[in-house]
Structures are given as C-alpha cells and as structure tokens.
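In this supplementary section we document a worked example of the pipeline. Step one takes a protein sequence of length 278 as its only input; no multiple sequence alignment statistics are reported here. Step two produces a three-dimensional model, which step three serialises into structure tokens for compact storage. The input and output of this example are shown verbatim.
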Amino acid sequence: MTSDHLDIVLRVLDHQVVGPEREIVGKVDDLELTGPGTDLAVTGFAVGPGGLSQRLPGRLGAWVGAVWRRLSSSSDPQPVVVPVVHVADLGSAIVLGERVAEALQASFGLERWLRRHVVSRIPGAKGGEQETEAGAASGSDATASPAPGPEASARPTDPPTRPPRPGARWLSALLGAPVLDEDGHHLGDLIEVHCRSGPRRWTVTHLQVTRSALGTELGYHADPHQGPALLKWAFRRLQRRDLLVPVADITEIRDEPSRVVVSTRADRRHPHHDTDAP
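The serialised model returned by step three reads:
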C-alpha cells in the first residue's frame, strides 16, 4: 500500500469535518466525482443538508431536501461542496483551514437542526447530534493519514465552498451499484473507491467489488489481517470473491438505475492479492 493511497468510503465518507482549532463544522455527507474513464477523480465533498438529503431513503430524503430548500435563502439552492484543495489534513477527522471553516459555519445552524430533529431520530442512523458531539472529542487526537498540502497551497481562485460541478456524480449514487462486464456477467456490487491523493484532486485508481457487503463498515474489506480471529476468518470467507477493477477497465457508468460496466477479462485479482498471508 503506497503512502498516498486513500480508501475514500472507509477513510473519508461520514467522517467529521473540523476547523484548524478542531471545532466541528460538519460531516462529509457525500463526495463529488468528476471526469469519465481514467480521468475519474474526487474533486470535492458535500457538507450539510443538501448533500445529506440525497443519501436518505425515499420520502425521508425528499422531506429533508424540501425543508432545506424552503429554509435556504437562495432561489436555486445547491449542496455546499468543499474543494479537495482546501483539505489541510486527513485523519479520524478532515481538517480544514480557517477560511473554509468560517464559510461552512455560516450554514451550520440549519444542518445541526436537521441532524438533531430528523437524522438522530432514525434508528441506526449516522450523523445525529450525539454522534456529532462525540466526534468533537475524538477529533482532537486524530491519527494522520495521507493528505494533500495545507490550505496555504490553494490558489486565490479556489473558493472556500462552491456548488457541485456541472456533470459531476455523487459517490452515494454509485455505492452498492452492480458492476457488470461487457458480456453481462454480474461481478458484484461497488463497495469502495481507491484513490491516489493529490493536492487538488484524489484520482480514482481502482473500484472494489464484492458479492457480500457484510463487514465493510468495520473495515474488513480493507485490512485482511484485522482481528479478532473468528471474525477475520468469517469475513475473509464472505469476501473471497471480491475483485479489484482498475479505472482503465471502466467502459460506461450508467444512471437510473446506477450501474458500472467494465471490460471483460479473466485475470482480475482479489484486493488482498499483494498483502494476503498464505
């Protein structure tokens, strides 16, 4: 595993977003994917109810989105996106510079209201008020991970926040989507996106596909040696048919319903091929 490797579902999605003094300014509610084929990259992440509503199921998501649009002062409200260039550090929390943190705090009140009165009441939901408060304590001792340069490296033309880029896709729309080869064989469902981190974008290198998503939220799909031993054995059995798909193999990304089509080949390898112990 290279030092600039980044599993964005496990290491970024749903993590706390904090300012330079570790003050909470939100949570990564979704990730912006731009570019087709080998140019596919994560260029920003959504923070706030605009990004959150599109991940909530059915009528609940529609209701949260409707409340957000009604309370917004904009005539055409869009999810708030933070460009990747403004990420100062990546650990157990995503650390931003002061300018970006202040821009997010301007809309923090509405997000907090929705999380406290809507999201926290959903059984098993992530991102409620109690979780947000708990994240404040854990964010202060975040363990450093591969990260782009500090905010000082951002160009003056990079706004602290912006609307989604035209034509961009949301990661949440692809997670769980079926991955098929050109012959129509179902290889599995998308559970992880592997990236190479950089100062202005996180370039997608591989997609991870599975027939069983059990254990992915605990990170068993990423670390083949994670214990305890019984769970490690069970999840490795369930995920023994996982595949790693290079981004160059993607031939099409379809919407409604979401699915990813990749080239047909017989030499695909398991994600743990290079790290598995015999």
